Amino acid sequence: MGEVDSAFIQAIEHRPKLAVTEADGIPLIDLSPLNSSDSKAIARLVAEIGDACKNWGFFQVINHGVPLDCREKIESASRTFFTQSLEEKSKVRRGELSPMGYYDGEHTKNVRDWKEVFDFVVEVPTLIPASHEPDDKELKMLHNQWPLYPPNFREACEDYTRETEKLSYKLLELISLSLGLPAKRFNEFFKDKTSFLRLNYYPRCPVPHLALGVGRHKDAGALTVLAQDDVGGLEVKRKTDGEWIRVKPTPNAYIVNVGDIIQVWSNDKYESVEHRVMVNSEKERFSIPFFFNPAHYTMVEPLKELLDDHQNRAKYKAFNWGKFVAARNLSNFKKLDVENIQIYHFRKSDQ
Ligand code: OGA
Ligand code: NI
What family does the database annotate (predicted)? Predict the structure, then answer.
């Protein structure tokens, strides 16, 4: 990480402004009804998921079917990877031509997040538009870069991703049902998915009250399924009053949040909620988000079945997911001091 002095100065702008509450955390949902044929229990589960998406945009799941040893393997591989020397990690550093791999923190308004990251795509290669220009039809292929150490790193990552992807499909189907749609309504969008997995490492921070692991943001994709360790630090903006609520670590649970795409598909019924990550001076922290995203050519727009000509007119114009990603990547790489592209840019003005 950088010098404390410069981090200190940068962090001034970055400092959290609201008090944090631990009470009334995000809902905890037990997915075990999925293993039964008890249709009443499944209906209750669907209703719980719908309420959580509507009221919080965030929830935790237990009895989710992801084997614990699979999670432990990737957690251990991640710890070994990040605690290597910078020289070793830099062998898989991402670049403009190869955007997957290792890097330290994203920049938001010229302030760097207090973290290190390793990204890889699930589908190899993953196709995305070469540029954000609407008329440029050229595509580029994303490949992964794998470190040599630890030796089981790649296998641990790929095994884990297969499992979290299965869980993501289950969640997607529950969300679809909760909107009154057929379970597999969304599945077609994920045939050539652009999903990726991220390993986050938040080192100890000497000025924790002045820096953030990740500044406030919303996730742009469809769904995020996150494993956090026992340190804690993730905070979610409560919809009812805008307070930052800490997500207490629950052993072997996954934290799920709906991203911007589900907000648009649901025509704002399920909003993508802001969240951020605090750092601390005593403990380093690890987390693993799986970003479940559709094919680049997906035109994201409110689902017709949820619309009518009266109360429920479409609140968004259709936009191309791949171009959206390309525009985001461009501003991240160039470290432009401009606002990222956001879904509200596609909001219809008459709504
Ligand atoms: C993210 C994110 C939360 C965490 O990477 O988008 O919100 O706990 N991470 O690391
Ligand atoms: Ni996030």
Answer: Belongs to the iron/ascorbate-dependent oxidoreductase family.
Is 1 part of a structural domain of the chain? no
Q: Which two tokens stand for residue 217?
A: 């943001």
Range of the domain at 143: 6-346
Which atom belonging to ligand 1 lies closest to the Cα atom of 291? 6
Let me know: does 222 contact 233? Beta carbons within 8 Å. Answer: no
pLDDT in tens, the chain (351 residues): 444 455 544 554 455 545 555 556 999 999 999 999 999 999 999 999 999 999 999 999 999 999 999 999 999 999 999 999 999 999 999 987 888 999 987 655 556 788 999 999 999 999 999 989 989 999 999 999 999 999 999 999 999 999 999 999 999 999 999 999 999 999 999 999 999 999 999 999 888 888 888 889 999 999 999 999 999 999 999 999 999 999 999 999 999 999 999 999 999 999 999 999 999 899 999 999 999 999 999 999 999 999 999 989 999 999 999 999 988 877 666 655 556 788 889 999 765
Residue linked to tokens 């050229």: 138
Write the CATH number for 29: 2.60.120.330
**Residue 351 maps to a domain:** no
Residue nearest to atom 10 of ligand 1 (CA): 287
Contact 143, 230 (CB under 8 A): no
Domain total of the chain: 1
Q: What does the H/E/C string look like for 55-107?
A: HCCEEEEECCCCCHHHHHHHHHHHHHHHCCCHHHHHCCECCCCCCCEEECCCE
Q: Which atom of ligand 1 is the closest one to the Cα of 228? A: 8
Distance 275 CA to ligand 1 centre (A): 8
Asked whether 200 lines ligand 1 (CB < 6 A), one says yes
Q: Is residue 69 one of the residues assigned to a domain?
A: yes
Q: Give pTM, 2 decimals.
A: 0.92
